Amino acid sequence: MRNSKSGFTLIELVITMLIVVIVFGILANLVGFSTTFFRDENTQVANQTALRQVAVTFEKDIRRYALNESLVTGDPTCPTLGSMINYCLNVTDKTISRDGVVVARGIESFVVTKNATKVNLYMKTIVDSRNQFVDIVYDVYFRTDK
User: Fold this and answer.
1) Which pLDDT score, from 0 to 100, does residue 28 have?
2) 3 has pLDDT over 70
3) Which of 21, 65, 110, 145 would give a disulfide with 89, using CB separation of 3.0 to 4.6 Å?
4) For residue 104, how many other CB atoms are within 10 A of its CB?
5) Is position 129 within any domain?
6) How many CA atoms lie within 13 A of 21 on its CB side?
7) Are 79 and 73 in contact (CB under 8 A)?
C-alpha cells in the first residue's frame, strides 16, 4: 500500500517564509530609500528656485534703484539699494527679507560685494539630510554711458 499523505513539511514552510521575509525586507528598503531621495531632490529644487527668485529680484532692484556702486550701501549681509530697498539675512531663522518681507527660507549665507563696475551676490542654502547644499554666485554689472 502506498502512503498518500500530501502536504508540506515544517522545513519547507520555514524556508518559504524566510524567502518571503527577505524579499519584503528588500522591497521595504528600496521604497524607503526612494522616498528619502525624492524628498531631498524636491528640497534641492525648491532651494534652487528660491535662490534664483532672490537673485532675479535683486538684479531688478539694482537696475531700478542703484545705478552705480555708491548707491549700494550698508553691511554686506544687509545691503540697501538706493534709498528704497533693503535686503537682510536673518541668521537665527535662516531667511532673507526684502524690506521686512521674507523672500527666501533656508539660507545659510548671503553676501553682497561691490566695485565700480558690478555688484556680486553670493547665497548658500542650509545643508540637507544628504549633506548637500545649493549656492549661487550672481554678478550684476552697472550700465555705463559710452
Assistant:
1) 95
2) no
3) 110
4) 23
5) yes
6) 6
7) yes
Strand order of the β-sheet with 95-98 is 72-75, 78-81, 85-90, 95-98, 101-105
Mean pLDDT over the full length of the chain: 87
Characterize the bridge pairing of strands 101-105 and 107-114: unpaired
Domain count, the chain: 1
Residue 4 lies inside a defined structural domain of this protein: no
Task: Report if residue 50 sits inside a domain.
Answer: yes
Among the listed ranges 10-19, 20-29, 68-77, which one has the minimum average pLDDT value?
Answer: 68-77
Residue 2 resides in a domain: no
Render pLDDT for 43-82 as a digit per residue (tens, 0 to 9): 888 888 888 999 999 988 888 887 777 888 888 888 988 8
As a whole number, mean pLDDT of residues 109-127 equals 89
